[in-house]
Input
Amino acid sequence: MAIIRQTDPKKWTHVDDTEYEAYCKEKGIDPEKYTTMELLAIAAARQTYDFSFIFAGTGLPMIGCMMAQHTYSPNSLIIMEAGILDPKLLEVPISVSEARGGYMCSTLSNMADTFGTFAQRGFCTFGMLGGAECDKYGNLNSTTMGGYYSKSARDDGKTGPAVRFAGSGGANPIASYADVGLALMVQEKRRFPEVNEFITSPTGSRGPLGTNKDRFHYGLFRGGSTTIVSDLCIFRSSPETGELEMSEIYPGVDPQLVKDNVSWELKTAKDFKVFEAPMHEEIKLVRMVCDPHRIYLGRKTKREIAAHQ
Amino acid sequence: MAEATIPIFMRGKDKIMSLSDAVKTFVKPGCCICPGGFSYTKKPFALAREVIRQNIGDLFVTMNGGASICEFWCGAGLVSKIDTTYIGLEGIQPVAYSVRRSIQDGTVDIEDYSNYGYGLRTVAGRYGWPFAPMMCELGTDLMEHDTFAKMGLRGKKADGSWIHPSIAPARAAVIEDPFDGWGLRPHAFEGGDNTSNQTNHLEKVRESTAYTGKKGVKVALVPPILPEVTIILAQRVGDKGTTRIEGIWGPDNEQAISAKYTIAQCEKVVSEDELRAMPTHNTISMQYIDAIVEVPYGGYPGQVPYYYDYDWDFWRAYTQVNRKEKSEVDKYLRQWVMEDEWTFLSTRPGDGYPTITGTKGIERLFELRADARFGYKPGLARPL
Output
């Protein structure tokens, strides 16, 4: 299928420059300098293409898919797992089920129906997710660290896992059914282990392609490639091995910093390039149209906090 | 038929009960309870608070759709087992802290499914099916971990009865699709299928020998959910139980129909005629509702689509409270719910935490009313 993208900023949603300056002044933010969360949302939107179905998880992916609709993929449709198809998002929802997320959608139903009618049935192009841990083959862990079991089911003398995360929610089925995985992650070495302790969601090949560790061997019939958007670079699955490779790097980031922040010998993709810095038009849109209250964009990474100190 | 033998689900207007009577009658210590709603939307918080007031503990909570009620119950030390998919509070707190802490410190056992896996279980429960086919979770550690099996809660006792009436003999079972993947999309129509999805690796999947040791398209079967009691919030319920849920349904219809008993908390009890004039909009038929409890604003501090919005300031403040010492969280929640729901609703909104507008009690509830054109309150201030 031919990939269509709206790359002419003049055709994107319009934001008035004077209003934008007033907004930045009110919020006390630099009109040109983007933050990490803004960069992630913009980078995620750039990975999408038009006339696609974007299945978005909770949190920053919601800003990413809103951004996609206002820019590169104006005719793409957003799916939210609680039962929502193609909403007109006027305010950012804090939950995949809340009324802000359902405004003027095509249909509104329930969770089993959403996954059935859209994902299993064949309308799930991108699966946009967040995760706590990501391994060499694009598996996300959003379940646990330091053992899984608690209390009565545990046999190592400990009371429970060291850190319990939220669990799969919709992440596993979104990763299982999407043609292309798309995960937004903050990159730290401990969050990018070679092998995850717990595989919650296989966004990519799961294991080396063509072996009995890949996703197809376990019966997943769709997907296989993933794009991981981190705050340092963009990883993509190698089409030959399935292994994540450094595919694009943000301007000003040292490739060594990326390599130091994963736990395996990171390869560089054949078509490696430098990511084009976010444009003025993109920064304006992500701020004023997608999340003017800065519910998600106002959050800072540890790296940002450290850089400001 | 004598009066005494009329089944509970056919009791008509006698289903209308007080909040405390409904909880006393249907929620028992140790029971398997399934709270409805989704994160901040249409959660039956009045019923949840009454469970805390009556101090009903050792609960086995089975749920899809976020952990806000489970967070309050875990904070008050009322939960021993959870069968669920997600224990976060979404945009407000990535992991509900009281639930997380209870799992980490060994007071609560948890069994994990994915949202679709669990959703399919509710579909199986709704239709009375023995299982539903699932094609996700395959290849993950969700399939490899089974808390209830390790606890010895699956299967039958020596006398042939189930060890636990709400725990299936297995978490999932994998089979080969007897139709060889024929029904999967994109389908092999001449010239390809008319779907958005393009990837289709059926040829590789047919060679797969995972789980069963045999070649073939893999399908996991998941058992129904069979809770003893489901609690839901519907905007309107007819006086015999016909239920209309407006806005997103979440898991409510399936979870209500799957349960032995369902309590419907509502904004308003209305005549059956009002709802039956447009029956296609009704979502649960009357016999699945066993108790009807009218509590206007009882979904506070959550959102009820077309009625009122969530109390953002409360939730922001609560995520500071729930990180305190366990005993302090417990004390806070027990004091927060007050002696009854009316005292709660007229006192607690805006009480004891910083708010943007400074409103309290009923005035604050009125302030949160939704704009019917949107279903929420546009422009509600939501500072981080």
Summary: Chain B is about 25% helix and 15% strand. The longest helix of chain B spans residues 115-127. The first strand of chain B starts at residue 32 and ends at 35. The CA atoms of residues 147 and 354 of chain B lie 41 Å apart.
